Structures are given as C-alpha cells and as structure tokens.
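Continuing the batch. This is chain 6 of the set; chains 1 through 5 are on the previous pages. Same settings as before, nothing changed between runs. Recording input and output for traceability.
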Amino acid sequence: MSQNSVLDKASRWIRPVIKKIHAYHVADASGLIKLDAMENPYQLSVDLTAQLQARLAAADLNRYPDPAASELREKLRQVMQVPQDKEIVLGNGSDELIQMLAMAVAERDVCLMSFDPGFVMYKMIADFVGIQYVGVSLTEDFALDMEKTRAAIAQHQPAIIFIAYPNNPSANCYSEKDIEEIISIAPGMVVLDEAYHPFAQSSFMSRLSDFDNLLVMRTVSKMGLAGLRLGLLCGHPDIIKEIDKIRLPYNINVLTQVAAGFVLDNAGELAQQAKLIRDERERLLEKMQALPGLQVFPSQANFVLFRLLEKNANDVFESIKQSGVLIKNMKADDGLLKNCLRVTVGTPEENGAFLAALVSAMKNE
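Output for chain 6:
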C-alpha cells in the first residue's frame, strides 16, 4: 500500500469541520518590537527574578504537580478577590477553560453565543467540539445591540453566552445594565471573560453572589505572566464542580504553580506595572487622536484599535513592520473592523517607535 493511500485512509476520519478550520496563527516577531499580542512589556525586577529562580530551582520536577493546585487557587482567591462562597477551577490559560466549558455542554443542537467582532477562540472552540456558534453583531461603536441580543437569545436558547469584558479587539467595556439584563434572561450560563481586568479595573467578580448562572473568567497573562499559561474560572460551586470533571489531571504544571504562587505573593509589583501601562495607554491615545486620517477607538484594555480613514490598512501595517514594529492587522475588507489595525500598549520607548513608524507610514504615498 502506498504512503498516500495510507494517509488518505487515516485522514478520512478527521471531521470535515476540522479540515476547514485554519489553525490559530501567531506571527513571527523575530527582530521586531512586539506590539501585536496584548502582552505586558515589563519583566519582573532583578531582585524578584533572582528569588523566583531560586524557588524554581527547588521545584520537585520528578513529581507530579498537586492536581488541584490548592495552594495556588487560594492565592488567586485572595489576589483576585473571589467571594469565599464561590469555587475556582484552573486552566492552562483561558483557552482551556473555554474548551472545558464547551465540552461540558456539547450535545446536538446546543448553541454557544458571543458577540462579533470578539475573541476568535469562542467560535473556534465551538467548531472544535461540534456545537453551533451564534455571533451577535455589535453596534457601529462596538456596543451591545440589545434588540438583536434579546432576539438571538430567544431564538437560539444558548447554553453559554461569552462576554469579553473589555472586548477584544475593540477594547471597550459594555454597559453594566446591558450585561445584567443578559444574565437575567439567559437560559444557561453567562461567562464574563475579564482577561484585561488589570487595565479596565471594572469587574463582575463581586456580583457572582447576585447571579447563580454567572461565571467570571480571569487570566494572569495580561498581568505579566503570559508565559505561564494560567487561567481561572469562578462561580457557583455546583457549576464549577461539573466543569472540573472535564479538567485533565495535572493540567497546571509544577513550574507554573511555583512561579505563579511566588509572583502572586508579590502582586504589588504587577499592580505597579499595570498602572504604568494604563498611564502610557492614555498618552498613546492622546498622540494617536491628534494624527489626521485615523479613527482611534476608546480603550479600557492594554491595546488600541484604530481605523485608517484615507490609507489602506494592509499598506500601513507593512510599512510599520518594515520600520521594525509588529502590530496586529485585523485583515477586514468590510464590517466593523474594516481597514482596522490594533496595537498593544508597550513601554514608552516601544510606543515612541510605533508612533514614529505610524507617522512615517501615513506620509508614504
């Protein structure tokens, strides 16, 4: 039997929906100032880094990690102010938690709902597990369209509604009143994805006791620990208990548990970094809003979405990249993200390099 026929025989079992999906693309940032992935640009201080290295050197790599990550969960409860009567399940980043939630409800005719444009992993994971995804379009200023939302909930009866708060890629927080209404009329779970909480400083975590069907998801990635891949989902113990059944054993490795626990003991340094980023965001917004030919959207996150009014976004993106700065090209020819680019808030020096590259790109004919 030929190699090709063996491959054809094996690959025919892969679901058609999987064959149609494009893998999540991560751009190569080698040699570039990296402002495309909403990362915290700051390293830990030299002193904390040395202490962390000592902790990691003493980690028991020959042993499996604590499967429940109990000590780490309690530190996360304290730092993120999770109500004592609510439970926590941890994931290898928010992506794994989204996947666990989708798998928990995955049956025929089940629907997962969110808002478009939004975080692409909600739809991708719905496709992975074979359930319907419904994306409700936002308004032109990226607000929730409540008329469309009410109609979609009534029609599709979603098992889970994901609400990114602030939203990615638009960087805005939705109206609290609208979110409260969605929670109250939802037939299933509502997940507030608060990945960018350090920059928004607005949260539904304290509201968990008001709504039994509300879950709040956080991550340490935007705090400055993206390399650790650690997310948490908080909510009513009865719901979290069911989600936890899907979690693979030992999903939070030894090094992540040690490193995250240590850094959370020194969370003040991360809070200082978040403030630097918030302050720099305001400076970046002011500078960008003063440039002609741009529509700059408000931001409550650590990134800024902007639209080119006169230039082509693809050309400007390439010009900025040629200047040594990598940002995100939304690659939209129509819709709410038409001709839009997105830039992460970096250090003052990185932002200065971006602004210079942007001005140069805008001048190019």
